[in-house]
Structures are given as structure tokens and as C-alpha cells.
Amino acid sequence: MPAYAASLGDSQARLDVLADLSQRLLESARARGATQAEVSCSEDSGLSVNVRMGEVETVESTRDRGISVTVYFGKRKGSASTADLREDSLDATVEQACAIARHTEDDAAAGLAEADLMATDLREFDSWHPWMIDADRAIDLALASEQAGREADSRIANSDGASVGTGESVSVYANSHGFVGRERSTQHSLSCALIAGQGDAMQRDGWYTFGLSADDLESAATVGRKAAQRAASRLEPRQIATGEYPVLFASEMARSLVGHLLGAVSGGALYRRASFLVDSAGQQLFPDWFAIDEHPFLPRGFRSASFDAEGVATRESPLVKGGVLQRYILGSYSARKLGLATTANAGGVHNLQVEANAGDFDAMLQGMGRGLLVTELMGQGVNTVTGDYSRGAAGFWVENGQIQYPVDGITVAGNLKAMFSAIEAVGSDVDLRSHVRTGSILVGRMTVAGETGE
Fold it and tell me: Locate the Metalloprotease TldD/E C-terminal domain: which residues (predicted)?
């Protein structure tokens, strides 16, 4: 089978094509009377395979493109998009955006980000590492991962499958300020999910590895064995008595707590007054040692970028320092709605690092002593308006700093504002598979709903 037929090939040549296209579209918008305009063009390609119980289930090769045009007639905005590069389709897309703008009402916050904020130092961050793998080789890796997991423990009775994926993306953002920004990136993954036990006693868990370069991935056998160990460790779970306990969120779960913070301090939630952290900038939300920093220039970072989705230059910046929320997460529109300045976060944050104040995972268990280790969260029980938090969970009961037995069928509950202030430690066991880098997080006390008695 030929190597990865969906590859974008010469990425720089593809970027040149998209950059030229963006300029033509901007000129077309200007000719139709738009006072400002912006264009986003992207091309993506990918290969994914899935296997289960030693058999191939799916092989998928994809190639997509997207072109979005936004125009402004004063403070009126219109947007349209297409995937068709034919001239008549492109002209129709610009015309449609202009027609929408002519019929919308003025919005005082509408418009491009300010011209003097546009990025001028445009760099790459070692994010382009195509994996020239064909479908046969990808299938072999997935099969090897599943087999290694099934052979690792005799209690592994079934499989939910293994998968290998690889993707490439090139994109250009341009606007009528004269800004043209180019980005290219790759991402690759290998995952395995296994089932331990029989009948009603079955437990499922898995593992995955993710990176911008295939060289950063764990081996197929390692992924399979970790999936097996995690699934088998959950067999014969118990419940625990309902009560208030310390709760240690394993690192891959801990980043969800940061995610709730980000959602609550994002501009859209704030100007709609739909957040429990309205007017919280400058307030002490965390212990005085707690810190989160944004690092947009990390080499091979998952969200490294010289500019945000509006062309604004990114910058190193604290989000939380000394436990105090330093700022919000704003693009230009939400910033204007709030009477503030953009934080160069249109499109999201760029690599967050939560500062550790404790040791590795074992040290975190020792520090907790007795309590609940959460390794899985279920459901969407978070109210962003009030901060109330209630989610199904599974994990392990800990005594004397040692894992004793698995638990499931429980609920952990609290209020995010109280949970943030009750954080006692952040571990050095950072999960590097995300743009939010944090170790495990220990919350000193939460309500855990389980059995009604011992």
C-alpha cells in the first residue's frame, strides 16, 4: 500500500497557495466596499486505523480544506465559508459575507483587533514532523499494541480496540491590516483500550500516547501493557462510605480543573455574566503559592504560536500568580465588551504550566495519607454560573499513603471556588499529553457520595 496518500506533501508550497488565496479574497472584499476583512484558510490531511481482537475494523484516509471570510462594513459583520476553490464559488462566498454584513445591525465591539497589536516576529516551534507511515504499518502497530496488552495479564478477557492516527495541518490567517500569518503542524497518536474480568465484573480502561513527532510516542507494546495494567487494577471495586475526604486528582484528571477555570475566566462567559468568576481579576482564588503561566513559545509545544486567531502577537504571561487571578482569557471582541484589552487569546490559550509545589505521584499519595484518588471522571455536572461541581468518579481508596483497592459508583462534589482555595499540593508528575501541563492536584476536602455506611 502506498505511503500515506493523504499527505500534504510540500507544506511550504501549500502555505504559499493559501497565502495567495487569502490576498485575493481580501482584495475582493475591499472591492465590494468592506472597510475591514479577514480570511482563514486551512488544509488538513490524516490517516487513522482501528483494530479490535486482532482484526482490522476501519482504515480511513482524509483530506479537508476550509476557507472562511469575515467582512466588516463599519461595525456590521458578516461571515461565510466554503471548501470549493473554484473562482465562482470564492466570489460567491465573499458576496454572501458582504450581503450578511449589509443586513446586520451595528455592534460596537465588532472589528479586527487593533493594527498595532499584530505579530511581527513570526516563528515556527518545531511542530512539523510528518510521519510517512502507510496503512499496513499503522495496522501492524495497532495490532501489536493490542496483543501486548492482551498478553500482559491473564485477566484481560476482551478488548475495545487499538488505534493509530496521524495528521497534518497547514493554515493561513490574513487580514486587511496587512497581516499574514502561516502555521503548520503535525500530530500523531497510538491508543489501546482493554477489558478485564468477566460478566458483570468487567472493567475497562486504556492508555494513549500523543505527540507532534512520531519519535515522541511511547512504543506500541508499552501502550498496550499500560492499558492492561490499568484495566486489571480496577477489578473487584468497592464503594466507600459517604463523607468528606481529601481527593487527589491524577494528573490526567487534574487538567480538567484547570479547564473549568479557563471556561469561567473566558471573555464570552464573562460578558454574558454566565460565570461564577465574574469580576474576579485581582482576587485571591488559590493558595498563595499557586501559579499558572502561559508559554506560547515552547519548542514542540502543542499550542505554541506567534499569534492568536486574530493575528495578535502572543506573549509569555501569568494567569495566576501568588494565588491571585492576574487576568482573563480574551480576544478583541470580548475585551471590547468588557472594556478591557485583548490578552492575545482569541482561539484559546497557548500552553499552560501549573507550578508544582510537591514531589512525584508517590509523594503525593504519601502527602494525602488517607483519601480518594480519582483516575476517571464521568458526566458533565459542572454549573459554570454558580461553580457547583458534581461528577461521577472512579479511582482508588488510599490509606497510609498506599493504594488499597479500586472504587467506583461514587460522586465527588463541591464548589469550584471552594475547591480552588482548598488545593493543598500540585505534584511534579506532569502529564505531557496536553497543552495544559499539570501534575496531580490534591484538594484538601470534598464531599464524596458512596455508601451510606461503612
Answer: 242-450
